[in-house]
Amino acid sequence: MTAWKSFYFTNQQGLRLSALFQALSSRPYLTLIICHGFTGSKEGDHKAIQMAEFFGRFKINSFLFDFSGNGQSEGQFSEITLTRHIKDLEGAVNWCQNNGFDKIVTLGRSFGGTTALCHAAQDDRILGTCSWAAPFSVFDIFNTKAKLLSNNDQTISLAGEKGNVCLNRTFIDDLRQYNLFHLAPKIAPKPVLIVHGSADETVPPQEAKELFDAALEPKRLQYIDKANHTFSKQYREVWQVTLNWLKETFIDN
Hints:
There is one protein chain. By secondary structure, the chain is of the alpha/beta class. The longest helix is centred in the middle third of the chain and has 17 residues, at 82-98. The protein is 32% helix and 26% strand. It has an eight-stranded mixed beta sheet, with helices on both faces. Strands 7-8-9 form a three-stranded antiparallel beta sheet. It has one domain (3-251): 3-Layer(aba) Sandwich (Rossmann fold), CATH 3.40.50.1820.
């Protein structure tokens, strides 16, 4: 039987981040830390819960959490940055390791995927990482879509999954320091799986190819035919692709 533990852990800023941990009846093969997308939440409209329970059938634990300023976590959404997301993910890894779950793989969707990739390039505690529909040219993609809202250029508007949101200009400025062309090769020798929809209108499919080309082996790129940015009709196919990679790369070997 699957049981869920709901709790808070603290990030480096001292903010309490909301988390869900799937506890299995037997010791898991892996613990999967799942990073939600831009303006998303750990539950992912309940699909992340369903996905975690799907992985749980194969002795894979799932750790779901809200980034600071999102969902039920403390903090202001207007103050989010990629740097803060990465530090939040580091806090999730710390919690897993401190509680005896040290075989960790990270998985992120969209902006959460970019977070997972950037984190994997600098944290050797994880075994590998997987991105779904993640931006490669992250500064260019967000900067192109950002609209200035104030005369002093300190506030911007961006389209999120549930409408427009307001952010501090520091969000865009912070992205300048993250060049995945240089960061992706640093993920190796940790394996990386890149999944992208061929009909993604939010993050162009070419972004996945550029990420794949920049990364070093071991790496895998899987396009999902006719899938949009959220894999709304093919999400179970994405789950299966991810499960197959997890089993082949970390469990069966």
